[in-house]
Amino acid sequence: MKISLKEVSLFSLFILLALTLSLSGAYGLAGSYPPTPPCGPALPANGPALPVTGISITVGTGPSFLAFDSHLNEIFVGNWNDCSGTTVSVISDATDKVVATITVQPGPFTLAFDSHNNKVYVANCVSNAVSVISDATNKVIKVITGFNYPDGVAFDSNLNEIFVANGLGNTVSVISDSTNTVIKTIPTPGPPEGFPSPTGAAFDPHNGEVYVANTGDYGGGYTVTVISDSTNTVIKTIPVGWDAFQVAYDSNNNEVYVTNAASGTVSVISDSTNTVVKTISVQAFPYGVAFDSHNNYVYVANSGSYSLSVISDATNIVTQTITGFTFPYGIVFDPHTNQLFVTNYALNTVSVIPG
Fold first, then answer.
1. Measured in Å, how far apart are the chain's first and last C-alpha atoms?
2. Per-residue DSSP letter, 125
3. What's the distance, CA 128 to chain centroid?
4. By the 8 A CB rule, do 85 and 98 touch?
5. How many beta carbons lie within 10 A of that of residue 220, not counting itself?
6. Which residue segments constitute the domains of the chain, with CATH numbers given?
7. Chain CA centroid to CA 233, Å
8. Rounded distance, CA 329 to CA 16, Å?
9. Using one digit for the tens of pLDDT, what is the confidence trace for 220-257?
10. Which residues contact 83 (CB under 8 A, 6 or more apart)?
11. How far apart are CA 347 and CA 190, in angstroms?
């Protein structure tokens, strides 16, 4: 059985957290951390009771990543729970309360909102499927199959297509939102002995390109694959940091920010040259990343240090570190209220903080 670099990274983070808590005596409980299951670390529900920044919303078990629905001003949260979760929580930004819980296929990891047809696409990694949710009914209207551990998902507003990164398939699948069927499978460069393990994805409407973070390209370091949506072909592979994980597009500067989980860095890519123009040091195990279009900041969820790094896109320098989270995993910016929603994986909550 092949093990992805994402799983290695999560296991490393698990060891780091376990040692830290053991040394600090935060638990005082023997065996608080169970053995690591196949999909990654199972962090305990009775995790460290740190003060949570801002409003705290209880969602499902093990929340991972989120998507903002600009049609109804709602936030969709994947309750991943280390591959065993089967629900998506829906939060209203008017009340900061959960208004619906939707049953999906096992392993809801990443999500994307399609503003063309007001649907939410959920990558169900362990099910090799993508669940399609109507935001009008908060029900699954279709399950698309045929993927290989789908990790990342991004909506292309130019062609109304959804790009799905197959973490164990060395490919990216393209879904037409008019038919909800796979219309193309794009191979991503990788050596014969392994695969890049594509994980996070983001669409850049400025140049009509999709950026895919490859967690582990065994043959040549860690990379971001750039796909042209006009041809559905790979046009460039960009070297970045170790364990490239998630991607966010900055519409102010037309730059792409990539979290490098094991390096503790963020790579900044100019979309005009498709080269790295800056590498920014953040804190331990940066996972989620989001662009705040209100303040032109980039927020990075540092899972290993229980914090958020705030980066000014004018200088590409960390201007602030916000603490008070517990294993922050995913982050999304809500332009309707100018707030940030951050998942606390170990506490089964989402923190709401002002942007």
1. 43
2. G
3. 17
4. no
5. 13
6. 52-354 (2.130.10.10)
7. 23
8. 15
9. 458 899 999 999 999 999 999 998 999 999 999 999 99
10. 37, 38, 39, 40, 106, 107, 125, 126
11. 37
